[in-house]
Amino acid sequence: MNVTSNYEYDVFVSYSSKDRVWVKDVLLKWMEDNQIRVCIDYRDFIPGMPPIKNIERAIVKSHKSLLVITQNYLESSWTSFETSLLQTADPANERLRFIPILKEKCNFYLGFAQFTYLNFVDSEDENKEWERLLRAIKGPPSSPKSEVVRLQECMKVVYPSENELRNLCFEAPFEDVGRNLRDIDRWDYIAREIISYCKGRGFTDILWDLMRQRNPNVTYNHEI
Predict the structure, then answer these.
(1) According to the per-residue pLDDT averaged within each range, which of 53-67, 71-85, 205-219 is highest?
(2) Which helix (H) or strand (E) holds 60?
(3) What pLDDT was estimated at residue 86?
(4) CA torsion, points 147, 149, 153, 154, in degrees to nearest 10?
(5) Is-above-0.90 flag for pTM?
(6) What value does the mean pLDDT take over residues 96-123?
(7) What pLDDT is attached to residue 82?
(8) How far apart are CA 137 and CA 194, in angstroms?
(9) Around Cβ 86, how many Cβ atoms within 10 Å?
(10) Strands of 98-102's sheet, edge to edge?
(11) 20 near 79, Cβ under 8 Å?
């Protein structure tokens, strides 16, 4: 199964407008030459829609998000908002939903320092970095699929509608992720973000217990 087929885009490009020349003439061209479906702001954002909604839509509909890290990127308020959305949903990037590219030497802040990046500054072999990027975009998420599938199956029984699932976010300890899901109306996306949030913070047992309390007749097999 092609994981990316579940999404409208393979990748959303998060970058500073000051770096648009390289992004448009080099990065975008390379990705589209490799049949990668790209969501990029100046072409794919919906006219008339608030920028924040366009960013949320791009992240939701894309399999991965590509972060083009430069000093301009780190100083931009809009790219800061984009990375905040991504990192709030998956702080440890366990599902590898975002891929950092270091385009120029700059001062990483703590939020990025923990992640392995693709080096387009002084890489000894730039061709290998392009190959790694292709694998990172096309490859499946690395989180344990078996438990994720079991969680999703049980959640679909216990919380069959978007509203019921979203209401789960008002229960402790899920309030933080809930703030970013208030306007999302896709059940599968809400479920994925809740599961990612729980796995990143060690809350999966709490999620299992809440579902069992709500519907004790469902079989809950969460042995890893």
Answers:
(1) 53-67
(2) helix 51-60
(3) 67
(4) 10
(5) no
(6) 76
(7) 77
(8) 23
(9) 19
(10) 38-39, 9-14, 62-69, 98-102, 118-119
(11) no
Owner of token pair 């509909």:
61
Q: What residues does 98 pair with on adjacent strands?
A: 65
With beta carbons less than 8 A apart as the criterion, state whether 59 and 45 touch. no
CATH topology of domain 3-138: Rossmann fold (3.40.50)
Q: Which residues pair with 68 in a beta bridge?
A: 101
DSSP string, 87-104: HHH-TT-TT--EEEEE-S
The contacts of residue 7 (CB under 8 Å, 6+ apart) are: 61, 62, 63
pLDDT score recorded for residue 143: 45
pLDDT at residue 21 greater than cutoff 60: yes
DSSP at 26 = I
Q: Mean pLDDT across the stretch 91-119?
A: 73
Domain boundaries in the chain?
Answer: 3-138, 145-214
Q: Which of 22, 121, 15 is CA-nearest to residue 72?
A: 15
- Phi, psi values for residue 38, rounded to 5°: -110, 135
Q: What is the DSSP letter of 144?
A: -
CA gap 47, 50 in Å, rounded: 8
Quick check: 191 and 162 in contact, CB under 8 A?
no
